[in-house]
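Researcher: Here's the sequence for the chain we discussed earlier.
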Amino acid sequence: MTSESTRTIFPAKGEGANLLITSLCNQSCPYCFLKGWVTGNPELAEHMSLSDLDRVIDWLQVMGFDNVKLLGGEPTLHPQFMDIVRRLIERKVHIDCILTNGLAETDLYEMVNGSIETTWLVNVNHPSTYSDEQWNRLNKNLEVLKWREKGSVKRLGIDVNSQKLQLAITFYEPDQDYSYIIDLAKKYGVFFIRYAPSHPSSDLKNEYVDFEKFALMKSTLFRFFRDCAREDIRPNLECAIPACAFTQKELNYMSLFTENALFECTPHIDVMPDLSITYCATMKDIIPRYQVGEMQFDETLAHLFRDAVPYKGLVLPRCKGCAMFANAFCQGYCLRYKAEFLNDARSSVSGRRRTNQRA
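Model: Thanks. This is the structure I predict for it:
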């Protein structure tokens, strides 16, 4: 196991937290990493209250953290979504990004756009999964959210990282069709597509990509990189992937045609509607959770990241002798996936102890 110092990363000041403001969602994606928590039933949904939002803001701002991302579920389904946006504006908290499926009422997107400058990250599934009405609404909303500067972004020297609209795709099938999202990016002038293989939900009930499935999917990912590059679109990797799945030549290719290549998690502080805090929502039932206000922000971070160290540093059989793992370049894939190996090992040790005690 590697040392804590090489496997614990703290965010810089000025960064913030992911606020999962509601568990309500109007889609049921098979790959959803929050499967088992999100719900389509409004009566069962959890929502963050405005008073609890104030507690979160106080907790963040004491230590100088003043950025948040709004997530769900589908955040726009929160019954007080605009009140949350207004409260964050009043409290001088920057809404860095809103993650949405793009299916809310168009008036709502227009209202938010008229109030703040933020990045919209719109997750889009294959067109066959939508009704005609949904697909038309999605396209109407992308038109509302698209980049509106005249002329060439490159000629104007504008930092495209600040572009308001980005698209997202999750890969969960080896031969998955991705052409539609490149077509949408071209149609609405999107320069970045965020992508990730599907990682396990905390209850392992979603469609996720294990090592074997990732090996089958790799050729699809490389075609995706290539086709994005042809259209001057930068793929932006969201979650850690196993570096050992690639040859050095392939890693070099990725560095040329992708915005970033993640092989180790960067910290995500996920605040749930009940104000519990997780290192990552996929690990919410694996790593101990803490509460907003239970400790100072920096102390909470220290505990949270320390709890993740056994999973980050766990040496899987495929990681033994790997220089990339030893040098903390790669953590050996998603922590939730690795957690199963650690839990199995602990169960095995516990079983042997009980056997020895009976003997």
